[in-house]
């Protein structure tokens, strides 16, 4: 009887675990992680926080910055200087910060790819360099005469099948939405964009063509005027399955204040 109860408990536990670990990207220790939006100028700064949570291996790699068009993006980092790529080596249990220098020139947009690489002999079981690492992004916006506004998000990987996020364009709210396509392939890709209201009814649907390795940034109310006065979800899927990888970001504005709406990225 005890054995039967044990089997029932094990089966129940496995089902519960499967429900608690959906196939989406959120807080992740993938060796490749994405900073989905970098804003330079107009008083914006970003702090990228990398924390090695591994109990054995170091985290070694580089952060490479790209413009929204996918070209190298020189970014001025506090205490380091202006480069488009920065290397790092984080011992286990340590945290490293990269912080952009305040800039009040014309606003420029981009994104970044974080890649880890092994410095050990993986065939011999030495995975030094690719220890588990969490990433976090903190935005700050400084405007003369106003308090600084801040928000943050955890970094994730890229998805193959769907990107979806919530939006709220009611009242004085408006939404900035960004889509990033694969950092490793070239050419263009067709994406199916579906906007649903809060009840799930489709209110807008169209195909957009985007170059790989680029950031497509929009004011959702301008690109999709049907979203004005609505709350709902914004979904992106490749027209040809697995033709690209997707990640994205959404900034929800209300007056001068803003917050991040982190998207779900289905694998």
3D structure, described in words:
The chain is mostly beta strands and 267 residues long. Helices cover 9% and strands 51% of the residues. Strands 1-20-12-17-14-15 form a six-stranded antiparallel sheet, with no helix packed on it. It has a four-stranded antiparallel sheet with strand order 2-9-4-7, with no helix packed on it.
Features:
267 residues; mainly beta; Hypothetical Protein Tm1070, Chain: A; six-stranded antiparallel β-sheet; four-stranded antiparallel β-sheet; 2 helices
- CATH-derived topology of the largest domain: Hypothetical Protein Tm1070, Chain: A
Quaternary structure annotation: single chain
Residues in β-strands, percent: over 45%
- CATH class of the largest domain, named Mainly Beta
Q: How would a textbook summarize the main sheet?
A: 6 strands, antiparallel
Report the span from N to C terminus.
Answer: 41 Å
- H/E topology pattern: HEEEEEEEEEEEEEEEEHEEEE
The overall number of domains is 2
Helix content range: under 10%
Number of DSSP E strands: 20
Total helical segments:
2
Shape call: globular
Which runs of at least 5 residues are low in confidence (pLDDT < 50)? Answer: 2-26
Averaging pLDDT over every residue, what do you get?
87
Question: Over the alpha carbons, how many angstroms does the gyration radius reach?
Answer: 20 Å
Strand order of the largest sheet: 1-20-12-17-14-15
């Amino acid at each position: 009887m005890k054995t039967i109860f044990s089997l029932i408990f094990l089966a129940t536990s496995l089902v519960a675990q499967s429900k608690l670990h959906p196939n989406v990207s959120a807080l992740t220790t993938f060796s490749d992680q994405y900073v989905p939006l970098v804003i330079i100028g107009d008083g914006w700064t970003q702090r990228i926080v990398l924390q090695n949570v591994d109990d054995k291996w170091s985290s070694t790699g580089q952060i490479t910055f790209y413009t929204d068009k996918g070209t190298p993006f020189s970014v001025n980092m506090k205490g380091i200087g202006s480069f488009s790529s920065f290397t790092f080596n984080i011992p286990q249990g340590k945290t490293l910060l990269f912080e952009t220098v305040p800039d009040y020139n014309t606003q420029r947009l981009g994104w970044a790819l974080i890649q880890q690489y092994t410095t050990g002999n993986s065939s011999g079981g030495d995975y030094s360099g690719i220890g588990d690492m969490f990433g976090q992004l903190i935005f700050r916006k400084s405007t003369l005469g106003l308090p600084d506004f801040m928000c943050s998000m955890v970094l994730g990987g890229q998805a193959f099948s769907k990107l979806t996020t919530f939006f709220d364009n009611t009242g004085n709210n408006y939404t900035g939405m960004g889509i990033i396509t694969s950092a490793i392939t070239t050419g263009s890709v067709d994406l199916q964009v579906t906007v649903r209201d809060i009840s799930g009814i489709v209110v807008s649907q169209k195909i957009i063509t985007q170059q790989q390795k680029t950031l497509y940034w929009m004011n959702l109310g301008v690109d999709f005027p049907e979203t004005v006065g609505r709350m709902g979800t914004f979904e992106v899927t490749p027209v040809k399955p697995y033709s690209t990888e997707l990640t994205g970001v959404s900034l929800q504005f209300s007056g001068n204040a803003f917050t991040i709406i982190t998207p779900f990225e289905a694998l």
